[in-house]
Specification:
340 residues; alpha/beta; TIM Barrel; eight-stranded parallel beta barrel; two-stranded antiparallel ribbon; 14 helices; globular; binds 1,3-dihydroxyacetonephosphate
Length: 340
Amino acid sequence: MDLEALNKVARAMVAPGKGILAADESSGTIKKRFDAIGVESTEDNRRDYREMMFRTAAAMQNNISGVILYDETIWQNAKDGTPLVKIIEAAGSIPGIKVDEGTQAIPGYPGELITVGLDKLAARLAKYYEQGARFAKWRAVIDISSGIPTSYAIAANCQALARYAALCQAAQIVPIVEPEVLMDGDHDIDRCYDVTKATLIKLYQELYDARVALEGTVLKPNMVIAGKKCPKQASTAEIAEKTVKLFKQTVPVAVPGIAFLSGGQSDEQATANLDAMNKLGGLPWGLTFSYGRALQAAPQKAWSGKAENVTAGQKAFAHRALMNGLASKGEWTAAAEKAA
Ligand code: 13P
């Protein structure tokens, strides 16, 4: 393992002004997104849609440090035959790959899930590296509800994340370590704080035990935020303050960067929250975005599956990428948002 090279990639992923485009929706998830805009989820439509984003020069060159791809996409060619991976690389962005194989129920633990995909992962990683992937992603899902999460489910998921991360580094691939505490419930922000804290403490313990070099990793967490169904929603200031406070307690300074998931926040909320954290200043790690929905909802709507809307889709994508790029430096303003 060349740790210096891994660290270089990890730092590039969280460079100021830049963040990650999570375009790794599984076939099931992208179908849901396409259903919402009335587009059939065919292989060609998925290709056309993703090609539209990867060819948005301004966004890809200035604000998107890396793209998380789904297995189908990493092997796909653009309409003119150019491999999509080459288009990403030509823009100076780094191709990455989602390598987990989704979740399964944990027997004996109703409502709790474990992420699977460790078997044969070493061989898959070697093929992805050959194809150009320099980082990977594995998402663990921790749900909050009455009586869950259990410490068993947190531990099992964190151990899997650590085993995945060690395999990635052995394959010279930077692991994005993603323990997502869901914001789907009716819990308040303090419950999210407690569950996220327990998860991050366990995660870093497991990463140490697995002998993962933290300098060659990126953390992809949820923000500390109230559940969507909670009647008491927290302000941007409270989300920023509690998220940064928790990370200072739990995320070692050796970690080059933290790239948030958006998790169901609105586009502008995800941007404003990231911006507020960076405005606090004095942070020991890069703090940026690795958004799926909060980067793609607007371009999806603008595109709506029509070739004549590609320019409008690219404009919408470039705008969200720029707004989040500004937020990664604490330089976003509501006025910049409206200027579009
Ligand atoms: P969202 O930003 O839509 O939560 O997706 C990010 C992601 O990659 C989840 O694994």
